Each structure stands twice: as structure tokens, then as C-alpha cells.
Amino acid sequence: MSELFIINISIAILFLPLLGFAVVILFGKRFPKLYLFEVGIITINLLLSIYVMVVKFSSYINDALVYGFTWIDFGNVPLLGPLNIELGVKIDNVTVIMFFVVNLISMLVHVFSLEYMRGDKRFNRYFAYLGIFTFSMLGIVISHNLLMIYIFWELVGLSSYLLIGFWYEKKSASDAGKKAFIVNRIGDIGFFLGILILFTSYHTLTLDSIFAQIAAGNLPFDSAAWLTATGILIFLGAVGKSAQFPLHVWLPDAMEGPTPVSALIHAATMVAAGVYLVSRIFVMLTADAMLVIAVVGAFTSFMAATIALTQNDIKKVLAYSTVSQLGYMVMSLGVGAYAFALFHLVTHAFFKACLFLGSGSVIHAMHHEQDMRQMGGLRKKMPITYAAFLISTLAISGVPLTSGFLSKDGILAGSLAFGSLTGHWLIPILGFVVALMTAFYMFRLVIMTFHGEPKNQHKFDHAHESPFVMAMPLVILSVLSIFIWYTPLPHSPDAGWFLSSWVKTPHTVVPAELSYDFMISETPVVEDQYSEHAVVHSEKYTEAMHHAHYPAMFLSVFLGGLGILLAFTMYQWKKIDPDKLSNKLSWLYKFSLNKWYLDELYDATFVNPTIYLSKALAWFDNTIVDGIVNGAATVTKFFSAISGWFDTYIVDGFVNATAFFSGFVGIAFRKLQTGKVQTYIVLVVFSVLALIFIISPF
Amino acid sequence: MEVGLSHFLVVSTALFSLGIYGVVTRKNAVMVLMGIELILNAANINFIAFSRYGNFGLNGQAIALFVIVLAAAEAAIALAIVLNIYKTYNHVNVDEIEDLKE
Amino acid sequence: MNGFPILTLLTFIPILGMIAVLVIPKDKANLAKYIALIATGIQVVLAIVLLSNFNYNAGGIFEQSSFQFIEKFRWIHIKGLSWIGTVKIDYFMGVDGISVPMVLLTAIISFIATLSSWKINKSVKGYFAMFLLLDTGMMGVFVSLDFFLFYVFWELMLLPMYFLIGIWGGPRKEYAAIKFFIYTLFGSVFMLLVMIGLYFSAHETLADGSQVFTFNMLALMDAANYTADGILSPFNPENLRFIAYIALFVGFAIKIPMFPFHTWLPDAHVEAPTPISVILAGVLLKMGTYGILRISYPMFPEITRELMWFIALFGMINIIYGALCALAQKDFKKLIAYSSISHMGYVMLGMASLSTTGINGAVLQMFNHGTITAMLFLIVGVIYDRAHTRGLNDFGGLATQMPVYTGFVTVAFFAAIGLPGLSGWVSEALVFVGSFGVEVIRTLAIISTLGILLGAGYMLWTLQRVFLGNLNEKWKDLKDIDGREYAMLIPLTLIILFLGIYPSALLDVMNTSVNSLVHFLSTNVTNFSISGL
What we know:
heterotrimer, B: Helix Hairpins, 3 helices, about 75% helix, elongated, C: two-stranded antiparallel ribbon, two-stranded antiparallel sheet, 21 helices, 4 strands, about 70% helix
């Protein structure tokens, strides 16, 4: 099993879904069953990625397999020397884990969609789009350089656009697709500017080379501010893709896409790409950049949770919960809990995919009803869906024995440690408040959907448990939400293989004076992943984490339990009437229900002014700029009219006058021409005589 | 009395004047032609006289011979033209042959 | 390839075609289409032969020895003209890495435009005769190395364009044609003045050692050739080089078209028939930027350096202004026309950086914009042929009715938006890499990135208005694209995809020349600024 072989297999994994896309999109019309080809490819892909993961963890657990090639060669550039742009792949532990996660969820979604999308007139195209999405997503995780990440970054944007707007006959769907693409573009511009800064400074985009240069003390444009700016600009790309405030507005709208797509793209994989990106550049983040990231993550997480409290559309609640959980991951990176961010990324991918597919199952059963106020009591009709959904809900609420408990606890501990080390206590406080709210709104969802009495008897009567192809993915995903896959000890994520050997926190390359002191290890780092308490960042940070572990765990379990209790009190036992409460706090309720009025705010401040500006400019162009051109033409015409008059009456008049004069003279002299030779001779004779007389000397 | 150059010149001048008179006054084209012959012969006399009294060798005589030949040719062509005029107009009155006018 | 006059053939094959078109009898006028197709087809083959025999390591730009496929003959040679002395104008053609992509583009676009002209049925002979003459003019501009010859071709292309818009155009064709003609001529006059000024400012040494005034572009790039007192000579302390540069720039800027000289473009595009729009956007606009790279830059390196900020500024204005104007359009063709203005702004921004990455990006963007916009105009043509309207709000839901067509549209639109994997992105990215790397214009580059956002805005909005949503009942009989349209769209799609994935195929062609140009500009600034400026 040579390294090259693994690399080749990985590249095959990358390109197989593209092949699926190409084949299905080109020939899908002729062969209506071609979607099976795509499903087959993704299954092979999953098997291959499991194989790669096993080989990687068994033989190359400490190595990164790198393969790069020159994409564009600028030769020997004047004043700079050789310059080229390199692309390539790097297969490290995170890559193979992501390969597995992406392919697994993609495969489950493919299978789920076989039933969910049955009868759609563009069935083949749907699977083709899933194929190109999988390709792009795998591309992001395999890249070893920022440019390639950016390329695939945009491609996932494309597939997201295509899939959100899959039912393009609905205006809301095509609007949502457009919005997603454009809002993401805003973040991408930041990402791109970050790339430009790095390329200008280092003439390479390969991450490892960039880090090496920073570690050697070369800062972009020799300035610490630019290094911070670079980190924040690249993070801006993640803000767009991972739906962080203020660019989160596209994600809830993206729920216009088919529900399996929401599960795959807008919950489990693509939106996590932002987190993945920040984790890739984690080592070059300065203290300021980390603080910005932590604050944005914490705030997003809080904001989205408050909105999720009041939504009634089942997918909207899940969408905001996704935003909130992504905020957690981003915050986790910001506070330095690198490994927990990736851990949560993985656990969240499974339980959130399960939740979305579960909601898809419910929506399918309810004949495309998404309003939770029309549901209720489905527990009895759909036991498998309910069970899977419940396990995932427990996981997202951070209840012990679930995967979510492990990862969430780590993030909260990290934020607590960060608070204690830096004094930014607001971040852990927001984190714990969110934990409370998450448990509350998730159980509100479960209770409104599955418990109680059916609200819409007609739809309830027609509801039924989903068939095997839909139930099977739910079961698999919910099983993956249990702790046992990640660690042998349900209370200690550190003991698990994920954190102790698979994902290791890299050491920052930022100069010590620009980074937090706890990020810099005083003693030389010992690379020993088998030691019980591996040092993360520095002894100081490891110790703070250690101290924060139990308080965070107890507090989060307590708050989670409180949230669940509150949800049961309000919606199951009806001890508190939610309507009365919302009336009492009506402005808060409306603020939350209307999503903080951010869409309206953006429309008023950005969208409409741009459209007005464009209209004004079009008018300006048509009237003023072109008016000047046409005015110049008019002025020229005016002068030409004057000169034409001058020409006709003065210049040409003079010419005609000459002709007239010669004519007149001619008429006068014509009389002399008698035509008689003898007259002429007489004239000649007399003339000669006259000449003789004149010139004679006498 | 010695016959000198001036005598010849007087004769030729008289002949020339007669010729001009004939050319100008006669209406008949043939008469006009005869006038022209007179003028040419007046010139011939001058040539020979100058040749005799001047120091020109035989050049004058040679020119005179040319003129005689030329006169003959001219008379032939002119008479042919006159004949054609007669055929066209049925007369040879030069006063009435004025088609070139205007 | 020694001695084979490939450039002359490339340039004058269409003229042969034109003669053939003119002599065919009137009742067999349709033969003209096949003649034009054969002529442009031969051109494509020749262009590919040219490319395959092209030496990627020869720089060109300023030295004759590294130009390739050179053809140089005495063309006009008059001796002993009073004070001027000898007038010597050469028939001088040659290519380097900057012209080869343009030659290739011209050949491809002409061929595709011929296919797209298939449905022309109004005085077919006249149309194709004009079309082929236009083709010669365009090709000639890109291969000439003598300023006089360049100017001849530059003007040659104007006349057929005037008739092609003025006779075969839309409702306001006369207005558009005359506007195009006069505007461009206005620019050419400036160019002519500068050309003559340069002519009387520089000497070329002939083989017999005598010195004559010269139109030879390469001679004009060498500071050593300038006379001491020429009006545009750097050695003349009172020279007018600055004014001449601006005049020349305006001449080229009109063609690009650069704000505020751009208003002829939307009118010309809206009125021109589809194939002429394709040519106009695909090739003609590139002449402006090509002229700047080929003439303004190396002949006036010191002023170029001085004015680079302004070039970038106008590039930025083009990008943002064009995009914003496009956002407000209701006519499909006008929208594409404004998007053209926006995209040509990237070319200017890249050129202004005077760096390898930026100029590579600019030349690549010229090629890519040529193919992408040609495709966009073909797309508009397809729908206009069927529906006889171009109003963006008249459609809706065409994706259901014409799925294959919509597939091509999506590729072209996303290429125009700058989606990675498609060619437009590579060049835009390089333009930004180049312009961002130069401190002087960094701010302008940052502002220009807004163009990426606005581009996505107007393109996706158009996609939504025309193709998404419910099908408008009025259009339920529209047919999807036919074989001829496949033949036009597939090659362009393949080029867009190929250059998106493997841009080096074209970048390697131009890279040596671009490096040589950048090197020339950076070293020659001092040579040219000896004067007391």
C-alpha cells in the first residue's frame, strides 16, 4: 500500500461523482433509469473512502500524503524570479474523516431521495446535481492549497444554487437559490482578497508553504495588521458558507430546496465547509482574528437560537438550529478548541442529517406539510422516524451518552477556559445560554410534531411510516449519534480515538507577540499522541481546559435538562401557555419570529439602494453620457447646417457668379464670330497693319 | 537705271495687295483661291529677290520651289473642297457658307 | 514553416472568398454561405497550424528576431520626396505570444459567426462579401507589425461593419451604424495623428546604412531610433509625447469601449444582427486593448508607467459602472452589451498592473471574454430567432420548454459570473492577482472585486427572469435548439470548459511574450524619460 496508491484512490474518490454528474446530465434524457448509475457511484465512493480511512489510520496515521503539481507556470517573471501556481492534494486525518462523513451522508441522502423524490419530472437531474455537489465538497477537503479550496468552494456554491432552486417553478425557490449564491459571494470576495494578500506576499498558495513562511517571521506586507486582516478575510468566506452573522440570511431561505438536499448540503456538509476552512488556516490566526471569530460564532449561535425558539416551520427551526450549531463550531475555533470544533462538525453532521431526513420523512408522510402547528401525535404512526429523531434531538441537546454531549461539552469547556484565560466571559455565557435554548426549541419541535393530539386529522389519517429506503438512513445516522463510536468513556471525549489520535491540534505559527500567550508553548512540544494528557497549545491552556471540563459538563447537562423540562412544561403538560407568554413579551416574540428583521434591514440598506443606483446609473448612461455623444452630434449637425448654407449661397454663389460673368462676356463677344472667312482675313490684315504701325520704329 | 531690290519689293507688294484684295472681296470661292495664289507668288518673288541681293546662297530659290509645289498641292485640295462645297450647297459663294457660326 | 506565408494567407483567404462570393450568379446566392464557411474554416485550420508551429519560448514584443512567421517586404517605396526624403512603408507581418491568441480567437469567432449567419436571407451575397472583408480587416490588425499597415486594416474593418449593421440590422440600424462609424473614426483620427507624429520622430537604419523615417512598430519602440528634434521624440525637450499618448489611448479606448466612450456599444449591439454582435463583442472590442498592449505600452513606456493608476481607475469604473448599468436593463442584448463593458474593465485593470500575472490575465480575459460573450450573444440570438423579442420580462420558465438550451445558457452565464472551472474565472483571478500585487492600484483592485458580486447579481437575476419560474403559455411552442445551433454552441462550451480546467494551454503561449513585455516596460522607462520631463 504505497502512499501514491492511497493518493490515487483518493483522487478517484474525488472524481467519480463528477463522472456520475457528467454521465447523468448528458444522457439522463435518453435513459430514465440512469440515476442508478449515480447511486452506484456514490456507494462505491463510500466503500473506497472507508478503505482509505482504514489504511490511513492503520499505516499513515501521523503522515500527511501530499501530491502537488504546477497548474500555471509564469516562468521567470521580471523583478520577481520564478513564479507559478500550484494545485494539489493533501490527505491527512481530517481529510479522510471528512471523506467518510461526506460520502456516507451523501450516500444515505441518495438512497433516501430514491423514495422522497419519486415521481419528480427531473429525477435524473436531481441525482446529477447531488453528484456534482459531492465532487465539489470532496474537493474542498482534499485540497492542500487555498486556490483549489476556493475553486471547489465556488463549485459547492453552484451546486447549492442548483439544488436550492431545483423546483425552480416556485419563485420562492429560485429567489432562495439566487440569494444563497449572492450572499455567499459576498463572503467569497473576502476569502478571495485573503488569497490575494497571501499570494502577493508569499507567491504561493500552498498552505504548508504559507505557514512555513509565517513561522519564519515573514508577515504579509511586513505588518501584523495584515496578518490579522488576512485571517479575518478568509474567515469571511466561512461566514458566508457557514451562515454566520451577518451573512446567515441565505440558509433559512435555502430550505426551499428538497429536504434531502437540506440534510446533505445545508446541514451536514457544505455549511460545515466554512468551519473546515477556518480549521485549515487555524494556525495562522492572530489573537485579534481569533477573538473576532469567537465573538462572531458566539453571537451567531445566540441569535439563531433566539430565532429558532418561535419558528413554526419544521425546516426553519432546523435551519436556525444549524446556524446556531455552526456558530458553536466557529466559536470553538475562535477560543482555540480546534479539535472539538472538528469533532462537533462530525457529530453534528450525523445528528443534523438525521434530523433533516427525519423531518423529510415527516413532511413526506404529511404530504408536504411543513407547519408544525398542523402536526402532532405522529409518534404512533411513525415509530422508527420518531425513535431516530428523538435520539438525534437528545444528541443536539447535549444529553449524556450521545455524541453531541461529548462534542458540545468540549466546546463549552473550551469557551470557559478561554473566558478564564482572557477575561472574555461573554463568550462562555452566550454558549451556555444557547445550550439551554437549543434543548428547549428542539424538544418544542419534537413535542409539537410527534407528541400530543393530531391537529390536522385529515392529514394525520393519511400519514404512514416511511418505507425502508427512507427509514434505513435514519436508523444508521441515529446510531452514529451514540457515544460509543467516538470514545469508550461516555463522559470523557479526550479518551476517545477521535481526539487522542485522529485529530491533533496543530501549533500556531503566528509570532508569539501577536498570539495569545496560552497558544504558545513554553517548553518544546513533545509529539506523543499516546500520552494520556496530550498538550494542546500549551500547558497553560491544557490545564485551563482540564479545569473547565467538569464545570462545563455539569452546567451544560443542567441547562440542557432545564430546557427540556421547560419544553415539556409548556408544550406537553401545558402548564404554561406559550400563547400567553408570547403576548406578554410581544415585541420580543415578534423580534424573534421575524428573524430580527435582518432581511428587511438588508433589503433597505443594500439590495434596494443597489437597484436604485443601477437604475439611476442606467438613466445617467442613457441620458447624460449618451446625451453628450448625441449632443455632440447635434452641435456638429448645427454647424454643418450653417456651413452648408454658407457653402450654397456664398462659396457656390461666387462660383456661379464667375460662370455667369463669363457667359455674359461670351454673349457680348459672340457677335464678332461671323463665320465668314473674309471678315476674319480683313481683321487679320488690319490687325497686322496696326501691329506694324505700332511696333515700327518710325 | 539699275533694277534693285526695292523694285522687286514694289512688284511683290502690289501682287500681295491684289491677292489680299481678291481674297477679301470676291464671293466666288474659286476667285478667293486665285487671290491666295497671288499672295503665294508675291512671297515667291520676295524669296528670290532676297536670295539674289542678300548673301543667302540658293536658299531662297529652294524655298520658292517648295512654295510652288505647295501651292500646287493646295490648289488641288482646295479645288476638291470647292467641288464638294458645290455639291453640298449648289453654289460656291463664301458669304453664304457660314455653318460654323454659333 | 520557413517561407510559407501563413499570415498573409490567414489574412487574405477571406478576401479570396469575398471575390468568389461576388462573382457567383445571383440565383445561386446561397452558395455564398458555403464559400464563407470554407474560407473561415480554412482560417481556423491555418490558425491551428500556426499555433502548433509556434515556438512558446520566443518573446517577440520589441525585437524582430523573436517574432515568428515574419513576412517583410517593401510595400511603398518613394525616393527623393523634397524634405521628407524617402518614404518607405513595409508590408510587415509577424506574431508573438500576444497576437497568437487573438488570431486564434478571430478565426474561431469568424467561423462560428458564419454558422450563425445561416439564416440571413436579405441580399446574401452582399452580406457575406462584407462579412469576409471584415474578417480580413480583423485578422490584419492582429498580425501587422507596421503601424501604417495596422492602420490600414484598422480602417478596413470599419467599412463593412458599417454596412453590416446599417443594412442587416434592427429597427434603428441607421442610427446605430452611423454612431458606430463616426465614433470609431473619431478615435482613428487621433491614432492617425499620433502615427504620423511618430513617423516623423524616428529613424530606421536601412541595409545600406541610410536612415529613413519609419512606421515600423519595432523600430518605434527603441528609444535609440528617435531623432533629436522629432515632435514625439523623447530627446526633444518640448516633445508632445504625453498628449500623443492620451490621444492614442482615446483612439483605442473607444474601441474597448472604455467609460465614457462606451455608449456606441449598446446601440450597435442591440441593432446588429446576431452574428455581427458576436463578431463585435468577440473580436472587435479586443482590438482596443490589443492596440494598447502592442502600441501604446512599448512605444510610450514612461508615460504608461506614469498613468497606470488612471488606466486602472477607468478599468474599475468600467467594471462597476457596466455591471450596475447591466443590472437595470430590460433588454437581453443590452444587458449582455453592458456586461461586456464590465468584463472589458477587467482587461484594463489587468493591463494597468504592468505585471506578468496581470497582463497574462488581461490577454487571457480578452480571449475568454471573446468566447463567453460570443456564446452569450448566440444565446440571445437563439431566443430572438424564435420569439422575436428580447425583453427580459417577456419570458419565464424556458428551462422547462428548452432544457438543452438552458443547459448551455447556464454554462455561459456561470462562465460570465466567473465560476471556477470555467475559463472566465481564471482570467479574472489572474487580473486580480496582478492588480492587487501592485501597491499603486491595490485599492482600485479591491473595489473592483465588487464587480464579481454585481456580475452574479445581474446574471442570476436574468437567469431567473428568463428561464426559471412557470412557463409563460405564450412560449409553449418554442423548439429546443437544432443541429446548427449545437454546432455553434458546443465548440464554445468546450473551449470555455477546457480553458477553465487547463488555462496553461493558452497561458503558456503568451507567457514568454508577456514576461518580455513586462521586462521591456520596466527597463525602458528610463531610456524613454531622458528628456527634461
